[in-house]
C-alpha cells in the first residue's frame, strides 16, 4: 500500500469518445445490434409540404425514368461480329504506340516493332480487337472517331489535358459517342506524392465533367525497362475486354456499311504504271465489314479521296478467325492470332486467288502456334518450314469451312454440304483463273437439287424454256437435245415419284457428300448426262430455277429485244395449270394470246394480266369442289394443311429421318443445328412464359380502367401503373424485335450461301477485298499506313448534292463568332468537305431571317450546299486544320434538320425615298428605286412614312409626270395625304442565295503533314492582300446637327378675329409716340423711407457675404470628409475580402468534412 | 461527283416503276429508244401525264424529253407531297395507271399527300378505283402504313373515252415500312362487290350483280354487291358500267377482280381498238368477272395477280428484315417488277415454289429505305 502511495498514480485508461476510430467502433457496434443508421435526422425537413411540389417532383422523377429508357433497336448482325475497333488517341509523345505494343504483348505474347495501321488480335474465345493508333492531325482524328468502338484517351499527367483530347471528345460526341476510357501517363515525373494525388484528382474531375461522372480514368504510373508495368497493363486490358461486351448501337453506323482497311494494294497493271506514272490506279482494299450488310453495286466513299463505285467485292477467308471450339475457358497459345499487314507482321496474306506466305526467321514461332486441328505436329520443326506453313494454312481454311457449315441452323442437310462442296469446286476452278467458268460451275452445283425436283413434277418442259430465254444466239437443235435428255431423266426419276422434294434433295446431297472433291465433281457430272459435257465446256449449262428465270433473263432482255425468240417458244399448248407456276405467266400468255411479251423493251406498262379465254365454268359443281377448301364453307382441316406444307418447321421433321445414312460429320452438324433450333425454341418459350406473366400483371390495370377505379385510386398508384405499363410496352417491343431477328435468321439460313449473299449482301464481320478502279495515283503515292483508311458505304441519294438545313451552335471554346458565307470545313457522315454556310434564325412568323454572324451562345440555323445526309446526322465544323494551332480547332457542332432543294432564307432591306410631287393621297416617290423595272418588281408592296401613314406602291410614275422623264419614280397611294418633308420607307424581304459550293477534302491525295488548303475566309484574304475592312460612310454615327427652325409670326385671319370672343381678340391699339404717363413720372422718396431702404440694402448685403463664407466652409469640410471616407473604404474592402475568404474556406472545409462523413 | 451519272435504260417497258424507283432511290435515269420504231414514236399522252404528276408531287425534279419523245432524261427531286394538289390525268389510261406509283410515292414524301385526280376512273386495262379503295389500300396497311389518312374518295365516275371522273387520294407519310411474314392465305370468308353505272340505265348493274352472285352460290353465302348508280355531273362524260369484286379471307388477304364496259377510245391514229367493238351482255360480264375472281382464288397467294407488283415493291422497300410472301403464279408484271427492283434497289428475291399448292414463296431482305425528306422537329 505504501508503495502504492509512494508511486505516482497512473492515469487511468480513458476510452476515446470521439475521433475516427471511435466512429468506426460505434458503427460496428450498431451493426452488431442490427440498428440501421439510415434514419434521417430531421425527417420532416424532407417530406413534402405542398401537393403541387410533390407532383412536380414526381413528374420529374418519371421523366428521368423515361429518359433512361431507350427505344430498343434490332441487331442485324447474324454471324461472328467483326473485331472491335479500339482507337488509342493522345497528343504527340504521350505514349500511344507504347500502350498498343504493351497491350498486344499482353494479349498475344508477341512484340510489335512498330505500330502502323490496324492490328487485329484474337482476344478471347468470343471477340477480337483491332487496335488503331490515332494520328495527330485533325483529319485522322475525325476518321478514327467515326470508326471507334472504344476510344482510349491518353493524357500526359505531368502536363495536364491538351486540346487534342477535347477536340477528339467533341468529334466523337457528334459522330455517335462510343465508349471512352482515359489513361493518365507520365506520372513518374512527379516527385511529390501529394502533388501527384492532387493532380490526379483534378484531372479526374475535369474528365468527369467532360464525359460523365464516374467515367473511367486509369493511371499508368510509369515505365519499367521502357515498358508500362505489367500489372497495370493487365488491369487495363481487363477493363478493355469488359467494356467491349455491350454496345449501344450508333444510328449512323448501323445503317451504313463501312470498312476500316487494314491492307491496301496497288493492283493496276504494271505496264500501265510504267508508261505513265501519273495514271489512275486500281487499288484493292482489305478489311472487315462493319455496320450493316454491303450489297453489290453500292457506292463507297473513301475518306480523304472521294466517291467511287466498287469494281469488285470478294469475301476472303478470315485472316484472324475466332477459335472454333466453343466450350473452353481462355485461349490456347496457338489460338492467339495476330494480323497486322501494314505493320509488316502477320505472315499470311489472303487474296482473292492466292495466299501469300511470309517466311521470316523470327516468325517460325508462328508456324508452331498455328497447327490447330488434329494431328500433333510437334515434329513440325524438324520438317520443312514452308511445308509446315502450308499445312497450317490448309488447316485454317478447313476451319473456316467448318464455321460456314455451322452457321446453318437450317435442317437441310444438303445445303451445308453442297455449299462446302461448292467452295471446294470454286477453289478448284479458280485455279484456272477464269471467273466466268467459275461461276458456271457453282451454278451447276447450287441449282442441281432444285432442278431435279422440277423434272420430277413437271416433266422438264419448263427447263427448256428457261434455257431458251437464257441463250442469245444458240440454235434450236440444242432445244431438241434437251428434250431427249429430259425424257431420260424422267425415266430415271419415275421410280421415286412418291418421294417428296426434300427426300430427293437429301439423296442428292448424299451423292454429293464425298470427301474427295474430284469425286464429287464426277458425281455431279454423272448426274448430268454425258451429252452435257460439251455444253459445260461452253459454260452455259445453267439449270433453270425460278430465280434464274426471273433475274437471268432480265440481263438478256435489257440488252437485246427478245421479240423473235419469244415468239418461237409457242409450240406446246397443252400445259396443265400446275405447270405454269414455274415460269412467268407472260410466256403462257404468249402461247395463248401472244399479246404481251415480257422481253420486249417497249412492252405495255400494265399491271393487269387478264385472260378470260381459259376461264373454267365455275357454275359446275365439280369445278367448284377444287377450291371448296379455300372458302370458309369448306373443310377447315384440309385448308390448314395447305398452309402447313410450306412452314419450315415441318420440313425439319422429315429431314431428320435422312440423317442416319449421312457421314458422321454431317450428323454432327445436323445435331448441332438441331441443338441450335432447340435453343431458339427454348428461348422463345421462356419469353412467352415471361410475357404471360406480364400479361397476368397487366390485366389489373385494364380491369381497373374498365371499372373506372383509376380515377378514384390515388394518383401515386396511377403513376406506378404508368411505369409498369411503359415497361410492359418496352418489353413487348424488345420481344418483337427478338422474334423478328430469330425469324430473319431462320429465313436466311434457309438459303444457300450464294443466294444468301445475293439476297442480303455481304454480312458484317466478313473479311472483304474491295477493288476500286481509277483512283488518283496520289493516293498510292502518298499513302501513309499510320493514317486510317476508312471506306464507308453510301445510301440511296446520299451522293446527290443539295441544300441542307442544320441547327448549329458555335462551340463555346471558339473565341470568335462565325460569319455568314465564310467557308467552313465540315465532317458529316463519312465525308469531310468545305462548304459555305449561310446562317439564319427562325422568326415568329416562320420566316428564316439571315444572320450576318452566328449568335454567341444560341443555336441558329445554318444552310449549306453539299452531298445530302439523312436528317438527325450530326457534324462538326472546323476552319483551320493546321496542327500547330494552339487554339481550339472545332468551331461549331451541329445536327442536320432537313434537306431541301431550295433554301428559303430572307434578309431585310429598307428602301428609302422622298416624295417629289403630292396630289392629294397619291404621291410620286423618288430615290427609292433606280429603274422602272425595279418598280415593276415591287408593285403592290406596302410602304409607310415616318409619321406612320401607310400606303402601296402602284406603278412607275413616268407617264404621269409630264415635265421630267426621269426613271425610277414610283406612284404610291397613301391612306392620307403626306407631306413633302416626309420620308417614305419600303421594307422588303428578298431571298438570300446560298452558294452552291462544296469542296471535298482530299487529304489522302497529298503528303499528310501538309495542311490542306481550300477556299479562304474573308479575314484571311484581307490579311493577305492587306485590305482594310470597307466602311460604308452612311453607317457611321455622326453628331446630329439640327437647324434651328425659325417660325413666322402668327397671323390670324380677319374673319377668325371677328368670331373670337372679346378677351381673345387681338386689341387694336394704335401705337403712340410719347410714352405713357406712368412711364414718364419720377418717384421721390421721403427721408424716412430712404433710410429704411438703405438699411434693408445693407442687411441684404451682409447676409449675402455671410452665405458665401458659409458655403466655402462647407465645401472644404465635405472635401475633407470625402477624402477620409475613401481612405476608410479602401481599408474596409481589403479587410472584408480577407474575412470572406477565410469564412468560405472554413465553410468549404466543413462541407467537405460532412460529405466525407456521409460517404463513410 | 459534281457530274450526275445517269442510269441508262431502254424502251418504254415498266415506265411507271422505273420512274417510281428512280425517285425513291434518287437515281437519275436516261431512257433511250422509247418506241423508236413504232408508228407513233416516243412517249404517249399518259406517260407525259405521269411525268407531270411526278413533277407535281415532287420538287426540283428535272425532266427532259427530246423532240421526238424517244429519249427521256429524268433527274428525281425531293418528294414533297402536300395538300390541295390537282392533276388532270390523260384519258388514254385510267386512274389505276397513275394511282399505282402515286400510292408508294406519297408514303415517302415530306408532307402527307392529298391530291385530286381527274380523268377516267375505270377501264378494263387497269385496276379500277374501287379495287384500289377496297384491296390495294389494305395491302399497304399490312406494311405498317397508318390507316388514318389513307383514303381514296370517289367523287365522280368517268369512263373512257371522255372521262370526267374525279377521285381524291390521301396518303400519310411513313418513316419506314415494316417487313411482313405473309404466307397464309386463309379461307375466303366474304365477298364484296361494287357495281357502278354512269350515264346508262341501272338495269345493267342489276343484271351484273345477279349473274355474279349466281356463280358464288355454290361456295359462299356471304356475298354482297353494292350498286352505285350515278347520274348528272357525277356520272362523268361517257356512258359505261363496271363491276369490282373483292374476296376477303380470314387472314386479311384481299383478292380482287374488276372490269368496266364502255365505248372504245379512239387511238392516236384515229382507229378504234378492235377488241372493243363487240360488247357482251351485262350478264356475261358479271359471270366472267366472278369466274375470274374464283380463278384468282384458285391460283392462291396472298394477293391477286394484279397486285403482285405492288406487293413486291413494298417488300423491297421495307427495313432490312426478311419479308416472306406467298403469291400465285408470277405475273409478267410481277416478274418485271422483280427485275426492276434488282436494278434500282439491289433487292434480290429468293423463290421457293410450293408444288402442292402451285404457289411461290418469295423471300427478300428489304432495302432499308428510310423517308429522309421528313423534317426533324
UniProtKB/TrEMBL annotation, chain A:
PROSITE patterns: G_BMS1
GO molecular function: ATP binding; GTP binding; hydrolase activity
Biased composition (Acidic residues): 428-446, 481-519
One Pfam family matching this protein: RIBIOP_C
Keywords from the UniProt entry: ATP-binding, GTP-binding, Hydrolase, Nucleotide-binding, Nucleus, Phosphoprotein, Ribosome biogenesis
Any single GO BP term: ribosomal small subunit biogenesis
InterPro entries named among the record's database cross-references: AARP2CN, Bms1/Tsr1, Bms1_N, BMS1_TSR1_C, G_Bms1/Tsr1_dom, P-loop_NTPase
Domain Bms1-type G: 81-246
Keyword hit for Hydrolase: yes
Keyword Manganese in record: no
Family the entry assigns: Belongs to the TRAFAC class translation factor GTPase superfamily. Bms1-like GTPase family. BMS1 subfamily.
Record protein name field: Bms1-type G domain-containing protein
Source organism of the structure: Brassica campestris (Field mustard)
From TrEMBL, chain B:
Record flagged with keyword Nucleus: yes
CDD domains: RNA_Cyclase_Class_I
Domain RNA 3'-terminal phosphate cyclase insert: 183-298
Keywords: Nucleus, Ribosome biogenesis
RNA 3'-terminal phosphate cyclase domain mapped to chain residues: 9-350
Keyword match Nucleus: yes
Subcellular location: Nucleus, Nucleolus
GO molecular function: RNA endonuclease activity
SUPFAM superfamilies in the cross-refs: EPT/RTPC-like
GO cellular component terms, A-Z: nucleolus
Pfam families for this protein: RTC, RTC_insert
GO biological process, one term: endonucleolytic cleavage of tricistronic rRNA transcript (SSU-rRNA, 5.8S rRNA, LSU-rRNA)
Domain of life of the source: Eukaryota
UniProt record similarity statement: Belongs to the RNA 3'-terminal cyclase family. Type 2 subfamily.
Designated name of the protein: RNA 3'-terminal phosphate cyclase domain-containing protein
